[in-house]
Design a protein that fits this description.
Rossmann fold, alpha/beta, single chain
Length: 363
């Protein structure tokens, strides 16, 4: 059975199960879900906890299986936590997890919690994960998207008795806060806790923009995959901010270029397939475009002419040489400046009205 992170509190109120699997790449939300399960378990007499971290192909799964089958002399109920940082339990682990999942049925004395990173589609179809999902509760921790981050911050502030100014000033404060902590939810949580210490709720604090600006550190972290989404969404301000952040964090220029170039190549392949008579959904599937990127492609493809995509492909080829140290006429010598130009070239076309479909121009 699958539930979301937001459903965990209501789920636990209805009763604790004997097997939980938490997976996702948002450490704060996964830890909060884990803490909620532990707290509920303590109220029901689970007073002993053992933790096992699966490291390497030669991990001894027999110790985990034995822990589930033994009872403590001092505690009648125990929690067994199994952390698999790689998300790959291996052949022996797959068998062991299936045994643990089946053993959890009807066992009120042992609570098993499996902790995993974000899993790909292929891993989720494995026999061991299917067993965990079938015999227990699986909770996928989804990251908070940038568009939802201001509301998430407002809710967290509200839980501590804090609020921002009403109307446009408050929304400006939340947007500023989100810009400073984007991609770093744990740091966002810490900044919210800091504001609660600086402006106690018992004083009836309404946080102004100046207070937030002076208190909240710039701890945003970006990744190239989010950059890709921002470019395709046609958001130039955010694209520039993310590129600056990636450069400051020491991200490799070639990786940023690969991400942008791969999007351009994929757009060109899908456009060519449509030109050959394939329906858009079929062309997207054939080129393995799905999820959020599928929705973005559906939005931007009507804006992009074949000629514009050909120009973008040529620009991507030139920037490939620049980030590898070559000089190109009429292009910046700096790899990062060239990446800015390429990203904004694509971003501008993705934001253009559908009817215009302009050719890509070198800025």
């Amino acid at each position: 059975m699958q539930i979301s992170a937001g459903q965990i509190a209501n789920h636990l109120q209805r009763g604790l199960k004997s097997l939980y699997t938490l997976h996702g790449d948002e450490p704060l939300l996964q830890q909060e879900a884990l803490d909620a399960i532990r707290a509920c378990a303590r109220t029901q007499g689970f007073s002993e906890r053992s933790s096992h971290t699966v490291s390497g192909a030669h991990f001894d799964w027999s110790a985990v299986l034995a822990a589930g089958g033994s009872m403590s002399l001092f505690a009648d109920k125990q929690i067994i936590e199994i952390r698999i940082p790689s998300g790959k339990p291996g052949k022996d682990g797959s068998v062991a997890l299936q045994q643990l999942a089946q053993a959890a049925q009807g066992n009120d004395e042992v609570l098993t919690i499996v902790l995993l990173p974000r899993l790909d589609k292929a891993t989720k179809t494995g026999a061991w994960f299917a067993a965990l999902e079938s015999f227990g509760i699986t909770l996928e921790v989804q990251p908070v998207e940038r568009s939802a981050l201001p509301q998430w911050i407002a809710q967290r502030l509200g839980a501590l008795g804090l609020k921002v100014e009403p109307g446009e000033p408050g929304q400006r404060s939340l947007q500023f806060f989100a810009d400073r902590v984007e991609g770093n939810l744990l740091a966002a949580h810490q900044e919210i806790q800091k504001l609660a210490l600086l402006f106690p709720s018992e004083q009836g604090a309404v946080l102004t923009f100046a207070q937030i600006e002076s208190a909240v550190l710039n701890v945003a972290r970006y990744d190239v995959f989010k950059l890709s989404e921002s470019v395709l969404a046609g958001n130039p301000e955010r694209v520039q901010r993310m590129l600056d952040g990636l450069q400051a964090e020491g991200e490799a220029e070639v990786l940023v270029h690969y991400t942008l170039a791969e999007d351009i190549r994929a757009l060109k392949r899908v456009k060519d397939a449509m030109g050959q008579g394939r329906p858009l959904p079929m062309a997207l599937r054939e080129n393995r475009i799905w999820g959020n990127k599928e929705r973005l492609f559906e939005r931007v493809l009507p804006r992009l002419s074949t000629a514009a995509l050909a120009d973008l492909l040529q620009s991507a080829h030139l920037v490939d040489g620049i980030v590898k140290g070559l000089k190109q006429p009429d292009w910046p010598a700096s790899g990062w400046q060239a990446l800015h130009r390429l990203a904004l070239q694509l971003c501008g076309l993705c934001a253009a009205p559908v009817a215009s479909q302009p050719r890509a121009r070198q800025a």
